[in-house]
Amino acid sequence: xxxxxxxxxxxxxxxxxxxxxxxxxxxxxxxxxxxxxxxxxxxxxxxxxxxxxxxxxxxxxxxxxxxxxxxxxxxxxxxxxxxxxxxxxxxxxxxxxxxxxxxxxxxxxxxxxxxxxxxxxxxxxxxxxxxxxxxxxxxxxxxxxxxxxxxxxxxxxxxxxxxxxxxxxxxxxxxxxxxx
Length: 180
Known about the structure:
Blueprint: H1 2-18, H2 35-46, E1 52-53, H3 55-63, H4 69-83, E2 87-88, H5 90-108, H6 120-129, H7 131-150, H8 153-160, H9 164-178
Parallel strand pairs: 1-2
């Protein structure tokens, strides 16, 4: 955490110097991976006011995936500062996280870039059976779901922006699986 702070101070100095000449976008996603980073950041974002959490709330916060990463954590702390009085319980944490995710979705419209795209089960499946098999299964599930909604192959291919060749190769695999 100390290295991160020193790095951020150095980067901030460089950014101030180059502010007139260039725009630099930093991606800090990989800095919020460890559970031990979360509560120091919460303390930082809460400023002089100290937040106290119940054990269940603390455990939930540590286990939460933080799909919006640092930005989501900061908004979460801001909501807690407004809503909380005394020890923050699990219900308050879930309520604030739910509002925060809804705000992120509203602000992003159709941009799901900061939301977790791969579930834990999907990741485990890819590790067990390989990425190509996981991709095939994902494509198959999406195509079959859209086909059941649209009822027409042409509309499905159009909605999913896929080629006829790809569409029929997936359908052929589905047929082969049925007869195994």
